[in-house]
Amino acid sequence: MAAYEIEIILNRQLADCLSIPVFITDTIGNLIYYNDPAEKIFGTNFEDTGEMPVETWSTIFKPLDEFRAPMPPEQLPLVKTLNDQQPHHKIFWIESMKGLAEKIAVTSYPIIGRAGKFLGAVAIFWETNEI
Amino acid sequence: MKISLKGVRGSIPTSGTDTSYYGGNTSCTVVSENDWYLVLDGGSGMQKVTLPSSIKRVDILLTHLHFDHIQGLGFFSPLFNQDMEVHIWGPASATQSLHARISRYLSPPLFPVLLRELPCTLILHDIDNSVFEIGPFTIESRFVIHPGPTVGYRITGQHSVLAYIPDHEPALGLTGLLTDTKWISGFDLVANADLLMHDAQYTAREYTNKIGWGHSSMEDAIRFASLAAVKHLVLTHHDPLHNDKLLSEIFSELQKEVSYPFPFELAIEGREIELP
User: Fold this and answer.
1) Which of B5, B65, B133, B209 sits most deeply, having the most CB atoms within 10 A of its CB?
2) Cis omega before residue A37 (within 30°)?
3) Backbone angles phi, psi at A74, to 5 degrees
């Protein structure tokens, strides 16, 4: 397989250095990297799982709205970014496979390279106390 | 394919008796095949480039526009020859054309002649992750990790492949060079090349204090070449603080420490390499 564009590689290298969970996807949402802190969300680590197609990783945790009702995928910041190539931010709840619910804020942004080409997206997960 | 090294120093020319063996001119290499000539980078070594009088076209492939890679441009005689067609290929920027960026150097007060005053037929090409052909060469350019828009080149001739990445920091990151080749900058350019000319400005010890400066240690350059199954490696872009004696000592130590199944050597100004 061809090497990733350097904009993707540099985002991974940055994610490696951060203590907050970071996901990196390709242009269609396949998870191509997540850092060690994201293990708290997935319950597993990248060394064990490797890359994951969107159908796999999107079922690992369940997003819930402020009423704890399931959120449709299209409302998730990362999905919005993949659809419109714009940054997004949202606070919501997630329920992991272990049934634990946690309130998080997610910021997502598109990776648009020097040539103006859309290369993928990044989602950063923040713990939050905001309502 | 014939490869002639005209400048192998990094950052700034270092003329003097203590650098006369490896050479003090900054990056410039000439590649020729079937009377087609490519000049890789326009560092101060460019002043030593001479072309046969029968040649009417030359192509300059710039990896990036840091000064040590363009400072020889103003002294490249084909630019002042009205019978010459000169093509300059260089990395695209999100904000300014190649013409605008080169003009910042080739204009007063930095240089007395304006780009538009050059008598040759000058054609500029903004490139990114591109594939293009020049005579017998198929050339692939890809952005690589180095501050500012910077590309490396994979030059495929009739029978052999040269990869050229004189400024490159593929080991940038928390854990250094990754082993999953999908995640290594420049890997596709280099894979299985007959010859790789690669940045090796620092020793491994020096690199620990220069992380993020855009260059490689010799050790990382060799590891990178090994992962990519390169057949022959030339370590270039020598640090201006490394004189001949020091470079030879560093390389001698390196040869004792590492063992790889391909030849690797320090670039020497004036050296010529023939690929089949």
Assistant:
1) B5
2) no
3) -65, -10
Residue B187: closest CA among A111, A8, A118: A8
pTM for this model (two decimals) = 0.93
A5 and A24 Cβ atoms separated by less than 8 Å = no
Q: How is residue B49 written in tokens?
A: 């480039």
State the CATH number of the domain containing residue B89: 3.60.15.10
pLDDT of residue B63: 98
B128:A6 CB<8 A: no
User: What is the arithmetic mean of pLDDT over B155-178?
Assistant: 96
Bridge partners for B142 per DSSP: B152
DSSP β-ladder status, B2-7 and B28-33: antiparallel
Average pLDDT over residues B187-197: 98
DSSP string, B7-51: E-B-SS---SGGGTTT--PBSEEEEEETTEEEEE--SGGGGG---
Q: How many structural domains compose chain A?
A: 1
Across the interface, whether the CB atoms of B94 and A116 are under 8 A apart is answered yes
**Domain extent for B133:** 2-274
**Measured between CB atoms, does B173 come within 8 Å of chain A?**
yes
Question: Within 10 Å of residue B127's Cβ, how many Cβ atoms?
Answer: 23
Q: What is the pLDDT of residues B97-134, one digit of tens each?
A: 999 999 999 999 999 999 999 999 999 999 999 999 99
CATH code where residue A74 lies: 3.30.450.20
Q: How far apart are CA B93 and CA B91, in angstroms?
A: 6
CB B232 within 8 A of CB B271: no
Structural domain span for residue A48: 6-127
Interchain CB contact of B90 with A (< 8 Å): no
Per-residue confidence (pLDDT) for residue A115, from 0 to 100 = 81
Q: Chain A closest CA to B144's CA: distance in Å?
A: 6
The pLDDT value recorded for residue A60 is: 81
Question: What strands lie across the sheet with A22-25, from one edge to the other?
Answer: A31-34, A22-25, A118-127, A101-112, A88-95, A62-64
